[in-house]
Amino acid sequence: MDNSPLLSINDLRKCYQIRNKAGRKSILRAVDGVSLNIAKGETLGLVGESGCGKTTLGRTILRLIEPDSGSIFYDGEDITHAHMRPYRSKMQIIFQDHYGSLDPRCRIKDIVAEGLRVNKPGLSKAELRQRVSGLLESVGLDPEYAYRYPHEFSGGQQQRVGIARVLAVDPEFIVCDEPVSSLDVSYQAQIINLLMELKAKFGLTYLFISHDLSVVRHISDRIGVMYLGHLVEYGESEDVVLTPAHPYTKALLDAIPIPDPNTGRSRERKLIEESADFSIPDVGCRYCNLCPLVIPDCFDVTPELREVAPGHLCACHVATQPQGM
Fold first, then answer.
1. Cα–Cα distance between 238 and 223 in angstroms, integer?
2. Nearest alpha-carbon partner for 255 in 270, 243, 245
3. 125, CA 20 to 30 Å: which among 35, 38, 157, 280?
């Protein structure tokens, strides 16, 4: 893996104006000062519960959503305000809703070939058919399926079609936005293994977004943990999973189901009281209302990412050298 960054973001922010139940306007800081690098050939896993800003971050990086502030560099070039047409074929996204992302009125051959027609207009009809057949084979689908419609496929097969469509434009960087969350377990494993095979075959770089830390651990080289718009922990995959430093990361790991019922019963359960305050504070740590290690500084000073071990960063006032679980 090349250690030079393919993608760098610095202090990226995206806010939305929303209304509460009483109709009063407030600001939702979906992405709030996130900075990270993704090396060429790397898979960076981004994990957190629903609503933490993962998808907004992924789409903002691709400029499908415009950032409010911060900077985005792709392969050394500042693309924060650049015209994105030259980068669209290099930077692609696999959507979570595999069926909704496919035009139900188009045959698979037209869906996969659409990017080829736009980016390589000189291809003949025979060359298009050949390329589509090769792409379907590369994702494990029979080329004869090219004449079917999306509704004729299972969820896992629809996601394979979506991946083939992405590969058609020869991308370098792909945002995988929870690509397996709506699939059953057997299909999840197939798609994860397919993504890993394609990464090795084509030299791809992934930002893999998921709420499932066990899935992220399996596919990722490094992991970033998000909580309410902030990156709270960041490091090598095994370091984050085996020696978590942030209390929120530990809570995510405790939420992973354990197949052995005896082990599951003996494991400590961390329950959240119904009266817990889930409002986002203007200052301080956003996890302070739920954290078992809270100190006075947590309410007054926003913690910054700091190194708690070589290459292992954590945004927590009380985090020290992480210990194995």
1. 9
2. 270
3. 157
Q: What six digits make up the tokens of 147?
A: 């004449």
- Measured CA to CA, the distance from residue 124 to residue 104 in angstroms comes to 25
List pLDDT tens digits, range 161-194: 999 999 999 999 999 999 988 788 888 899 999 9
Please name the residues in contact with 34: beta carbons below 8 A apart, sequence gap of 6 or more. 9, 11, 12, 13, 53, 57, 70, 226, 229, 230, 231
Q: What is the dihedral of CA 171, 177, 178, 183, to 10 degrees?
A: -60
Cβ-defined contacts of 137-143 (< 8 Å, 24+): 138/164, 138/167, 138/198, 138/201, 139/163, 139/164, 139/167, 139/194, 139/198, 140/190, 140/194
3-state secondary structure of 222: strand
| pTM assigned to the model | 0.89
